[in-house]
Amino acid sequence: MALFILPTPCSRTLIGRLCCQIVDCVLTVRHYCEQCCIASDVRWISRVDTINPNTNTITMTYMVRVTVLSLLLGALALTAGLTLFFPPPGATAGLSPAITLNATSSKVTVGTGTFSNGELLLKLNTAGAGVVSLTDQPFDARSYAFLQLAIAEPSDTVQALISWTSNAKDNNVHAYVPHNTSWTGMWLATSEITDWADTIVTLNLILVGQPGETVRISTFGVFTSASSHQLQAIVSDLTGYVPWNRAAMNSHTGVTPVSSFYPTVLIVAYFTLSVLAYGLLLLVWRSTVQFSWRVIALIFLACWVSLDMLWQNRLLLQVADTYRTFADKNPQERIAAGPDAVLYNFVTQVIPLVRPPDARIFVSSSDIYLGQRGAYYLYPFNVFWPGPSGEFPAASLLHSGDLIVLIKPTPMRFDAATNTLATSPGTALGAELLFSDPTGQLLRVK
Fold first, then answer.
1. Phi, psi at residue 125, to the nearest 5°?
2. HEC per residue, 350-397
3. Which residues share a beta bridge with 148?
4. Computed from CA positions of residues 62, 64, 67, 71, in that sequence, does the dihedral angle turn out positive or negative?
5. Residue 395 to residue 385: CA distance in whole angstroms
6. pLDDT in tens, 161-171
7. Which of 102, 261, 383, 403 is exposed most, by the fewest CB atoms within 10 A?
8. Angle of helix 63-85 relative to helix 14-38, nearest 10 degrees?
9. Alpha helices in 240-327 (DSSP H)
10. pTM score > 0.85 for this model?
11. What is the pLDDT of residues 218-227, one digit of tens each?
């Protein structure tokens, strides 16, 4: 069955020719789908007849089939290339058995735990902490290229940290906080983890959550290099997500510090290999299939959509995470639950101490973001923030009754013994401490 497009004068122009190509492509795909859905005896590999707009002759093409086959061959080539030419550095595949969570060698050192059906039910202590030691037998870090962590149905409050000790001479205690929060099945390439080297003496999983909360740990262990493990680690990188942070406001890299590959690089390689596969198919079927730029366009579109879907997947997971965090909260409660929670809690305790209400408030901080946000939360009071390039006012410009908010880190130092504030080297003024916590201090000039 042939598809005919009504001839139009516009086909003689560049824009008209392009429009005809688009319409031709759409009708071709539609015709192919109708054949697959209606004809019971039509094979998946079927002929699609289209019109060549330049010669008005009917040519036999296999555009959809060739595109799909090119993408499949490109995926196979990419998989083979990653596993053969980019193996984990220093991995010794197959020389050591996997070390996984088990009732024999694994121990719960903080909290209480019981093994059930191959899983560990860890009950956090009264401080909301739990620690699991994977094994008490030292092992060579280079022999284990991958680490897996899976927590079944984790609550929003659970935070994980992986710590280990090595036999290195200096600073042998190390820790890594997973950026990827897909606890249900996370794979990490240990070669990308800083300080994963030498002989690992102990390997611990530290969990922090609500006091008395029970966490079900499905898997925790280290594995040797294998193609399946490497692919699982790449998939874990691509499909996991990282909660919103300050850096995400201005950039999106699509990776975490322990990712092995950038998604864009993988997709570009996938597109290149798929195009090469298309060229190979043209050679194999040169008597049947003719070159078509529309196949290249479809391959490009498929790769583009794949890359965008990875990003959209992360966005949807972040949106769900944001909803769980901020839904059903008023504006003040949302700020208290957001990334500025610690700073906002400090400012809310400072505000009731501002007396009189029209007192001048000077904010000092070496961190531009914290200083600026702290000053913002203090509005509508009479607040002065020197800005990123400004300088704190000289001591001679400060008067009795002025308030000074120090947000750590700050170059100013308050001496509680002498009730003096060093505003700069060699300059100090009398001040009274009104409030202090780990985030900062509130002082009143005497």
1. -75, -175
2. HHHHCCCCCCEEEEECCCHHHHHHHHHHHCCCEEECCCCCCCCCCHHH
3. 187, 221
4. negative
5. 15
6. 899 988 866 55
7. 102
8. 90
9. 263-284, 293-326
10. no
11. 899 999 888 8
